[in-house]
Specification:
The chain has a single domain, classed as Hypothetical Protein Pfu-838710-001. It is 18% helix and 39% strand. By secondary structure, it is of the alpha+beta class. It has three helices and seven strands; from the N terminus they run αβαββββαββ. It is globular and about 45 Å long. A seven-stranded antiparallel beta sheet has the order 1-5-4-3-2-6-7. It comes from Cinara cedri. Its main location: nucleus. Keywords: Activator, Nucleus, Transcription, Transcription regulation. Belongs to the Mediator complex subunit 18 family.
Length: 164
């Protein structure tokens, strides 16, 4: 019996196919709000019941995020975000591009925008600085993450870097 060899698929072709079939999401639907500290436990309890990770509970996270920008020929500067996990130093840094909100249906309470996430090494901050980006602001996030299918729900508190 003779084995049939398949020709390797070029990386760009497989990425394009994955994006067309929505395996790699390149859009973000954002709904955000504020919750009083006194109501957080009630919200967390409701999310535990609604989301997929009922048995294991929510994942906790403690992240440091920096926002970088560079001026370009367009009126809007190019903005990139770099996020790293504080509790897990062996995890890769995350570089994130978030596009401008799309004009859409005014009856929807969500913002729709393109987004691309890439895992990087810790040298990404030096690389962006060398390219001419400057850090606009940074903050610490501490909170919980829930999942419901492909949806990710985060409940977090934002801290100034000097407060930690």
């Amino acid at each position: 019996m003779e084995a049939i060899k398949e020709a390797p698929i070029p990386a760009m072709d497989s990425l394009t196919a994955a994006m067309k079939s929505n395996i790699v999401p390149n859009q973000e639907y954002l709904l955000q709000g504020s919750v009083l500290d006194s109501a957080v436990e009630v919200l967390l309890h409701r999310l535990r019941g609604l989301c997929d990770n009922v048995d294991s509970g929510p994942e906790t996270f403690h992240d440091h995020e920096m926002c970088f920008s560079i001026r370009s020929a367009t009126p809007q500067p190019l903005t990139l975000r770099v996020r790293r996990a504080i509790d897990y130093l062996d995890m890769p840094y995350q570089l994130r591009y978030i596009g401008q909100p799309e004009l859409g249906d005014k009856s929807r309470p969500t913002i729709v925008r393109s987004s691309i996430d890439v895992a990087t090494t810790p040298t990404i901050v030096d690389f962006l600085t060398e390219m001419g980006f400057r850090m606009d602001f940074e903050y610490i996030l501490r909170g919980y993450m829930f999942r419901k299918g492909r949806m990710k729900i985060t409940v977090s508190k934002i801290f100034k870097v000097s407060d930690i």
